[in-house]
Each structure stands twice: as structure tokens, then as C-alpha cells.
Amino acid sequence: MDFEKVLNSVQYRKPLVQCITNFVTVNDCANIILASGGRPTMASHSLEAEEAVRNAHALVCNMGAIEHVDSMLLAGKEANRIGKPVILDPVGAGGTQLRRDTVRQLIDNIHFTVIRGNASEIRYLAGQQTTGSGVDVSDLDEITEDNLSSAISMAADLAKQLDLVIAISGKIDIISNGREHCVLRNGCATMARITGSGCMLTSLIAAYCGSCKDSFLATCAAMAVMGVSGEIAEEKRFRNRTGNATFRNDLIDAVFNLTGEELKKGVHYEVYKG
Fold it and tell me: Domain residues for 39?
């Protein structure tokens, strides 16, 4: 897979990404888009969301901003009408009745290009029993080598059902469009020790989908960039004996400075078909 070509495409095209995302991570989401070469807009008011998406190359609907669901519906439907990719981050899906109702409302009314979540969130969407606590993946739901095959099947079935790309992020990442399936083995444990690593990843995926028409390749490339950048930031953390706050900045810096050659050398992945 030509991740390097997609990386260069984002830096060349500078896609405008509209993010309707939560207040906890809005700054980090904007900065990770800027680091990738894209341009963020955080227009989320219901009186402007629909209009704003017309100028964007991609839209993020992050359920951490559950108070802005009306804006997501307006912007998402308009993005569908004009053919712009829409990325859903189903934060806490299954955690409360409000979130169960909201994610169903969004999926019923918007055709998403990619849904990116942790294993607990995606298992809930697939109708499986989950023990997730909300924003954090449960240890029992985590993707491991032992359950990898069944997790790929779950992602593939859900991707076929919804006609989109499913991306599960964690210690092992899975991306599937129902026909092709990519397993990524990058990243580090410290990525789970900062607020918003998942939200940043979803925003990065949107930037890549806004630059590449192949949403499966774009999603794989974005997740590869995030994983390799996490490893670079972790090496720096060990070297300088810093903590998770500095790691967050180093992660964004690593995305900013990542070259195609570094990505090609650092990524570890397998692709399966069928």
C-alpha cells in the first residue's frame, strides 16, 4: 500500500476539515490537522454547520460533542448531498441510553465514509456484548492476537452492512471495507495516557479522506502515520525522561515532521482480502 503517496497528497492538497468535536480535545484536533498539512475549521453552531461544510473537503462528527448532534445532522446530510466524506467518532457508544439513541440517529440519517472507534465502541455498533466504560476500551473488548481473526470478521461484517470503512484503533489496529482488511501494529502504550488520541486520529483520518478518494487506503495511511508518530514520540519521551503532557506535543510534532521515507520504514502492517 502506497502510504507515502497519500502522506504527500495531504501535504500538497491542504484539505479543509470541518470538525464538530468535543471541547476537551478541540485544540488538539485542530493542531493534528495542521501538523498533517491540512486546515481545520471548528464550525459547530447549528446556524452555520450546514453552510460551512460546503467549503470543506471532509467532515468529522465526534459524539464527544453530543450537544451538537443537530449540527452534525445538518452538516452530515449536506456533505452527503455534495459528495464530501464524513467521518464518525462514536465516542462512548453504548455507554448510556443517550449515546445509544444518538449513534443510531446519526447512522440512520447520515451515510458515513468511515467510522473510527475503539474496540468497545465498534463491538457495540456490531451488536456484540461489550463491557466498555464509555470513552475507554474495556480489557475484555481489546483486540489481541487470540481474537484477531474474529475481530476482523466483525469489522468486515459491519463495514458491509453499513457500506463504509470500519477502523478499530488500539494495541492492534484493524481497518476494513468489507472486502479488504488491514492490520496495523504500530503505536505505543503512552498514546492511551493522553486525552484525545482517538479524537486526533479521527481528525487525521478526515484530513486524509479529504485528500484521497480511496477511503480505505486513506484511513490505513492516516492510522499508520499516527502509529509511527506515536513510536517516534515515545522514543523521545524515554530519551528525555518526560511525561504524558510533553508526549502529546511530541506526538503532534512527529506528525508534522514525518517523511514518506520514515513512514515506509516504520510501518508494520498486513493486508487480507475476502
Answer: 3-273
Beta-strand pair 180-184/86-89: unpaired
**Residue 129, Cβ density class (10 Å: 0-12 exposed, 13-18 middle, ≥19 buried):** exposed
Q: Which residues contact 98 (CB under 8 A, 6 or more apart)?
A: 66
β-strand partners of 111: none
- Between the two ends of the chain, the Cα-to-Cα distance in Å is 17
Report the CATH number that the domain containing residue 219 is assigned in CATH.
Answer: 3.40.1190.20
Greatest mean pLDDT range, 27-31, 134-138, 145-149, 192-196: 27-31
Residue the block writes with cell 507515502:
4
Task: Specify the number of domains making up the chain.
Answer: 1
Instruction: State whether the Cα torsion 250-252-255-256 is positive or negative.
Output: negative
Single pTM value for the model = 0.96
Say which amino acid occupies 160: K
pLDDT digits (tens, 9 = 90+) for 86-132: 999 999 998 899 999 999 999 999 999 999 999 999 999 999 876 65
Nearest to 57 by CA among 44, 73, 41: 41
